[in-house]
Specification:
two-stranded parallel ribbon; globular
Length: about 260
Amino acid sequence: MSENFITSIKDRTKKYQLVVVMPAYNEAEHITENLLKAAEIIASFQDDFSIIAVNDGSSDETAKKIAEASNINSHIQYISYSKNKGKGGAIKEGVEYANGEYVAFLDSDLELPPIMLKDFINDLKLFDAQVAIGSKLHKDSKLHYPIIRRIMSMGYYIMLKMLFNLKIKDTQTGIKVFKQDVIKPICKNLITTGFAFDIEILATASKMGCKIIEMPITLNFSRERREKSRMTLKTIINVFKDTLRIKKHIRNIKF
C-alpha cells in the first residue's frame, strides 16, 4: 500500500448497484465542483451508488478539495496517497476498494458527461454483456476533438487489431462500465499503469471471453494544450513498448 495512504471508505462490505471510480491528478481547481455535479447527475438515474475519487499523488490541493466534496455529499468517498502512480495505478487502487454490481471508470474533468453511464448500464443488461466502453470511433459519437488525437485513436485501433485481434475500435476513452466479477481479477493482476493500461484491461477481458460492447459518446475536448505536453514522442514509444509487454503477459494468462 502507498505511503501516506488515506481513505474515507469505512465499510468495505456494503455493496452498491454502481461504483464509479474517478481518478484525479492536480485537479484542485475544479474537482469539488465536478464530483458534486457527477453525484447529482448519477443520482438522477441510480439511487444506490458510490463515487470513489482517487487522488493520485497530486502536488496541489486536490486531496483537500476531494475531502470537501465528500463532506458535502455522502455518495462521494475517496482514496488519497502521496506517490503519483499514473492513471492506471489510480484506477487499480479504486477498483480494489469498489464493491458494486457494476464498476465504472469516469474521467474527473467531466469532458465525458456522467449521464452516459445510464445508457451503458442499460445496454449491458439488454445485450447480456460484461463490459461497455465509450468509443470515439462509434458512428454515432459526437466529438469536438483535435485531429492529432483522432489520428492516434486510429493508430491504437490498427495496433490492437494486429497484436490482439480485438474487435473493438477504441480502448482509450475515459468512460467504461464493467461487471464487478470481471474487472476485479483483471485489476488485481494489472502490470501496466501508464497510458496502455486500458489496452491490458480490455485485451484481458477479451481473452476471458467477455462480451464487450462499444457505446457512442459525446465529448467536448478542452485540454488540447495539456494533452500536447503529455503526448510526447517518448510517451508514444512507451505505450508501444508497454503494449508489446502486455501481449506477452496476456499470452501466458490461464483462465
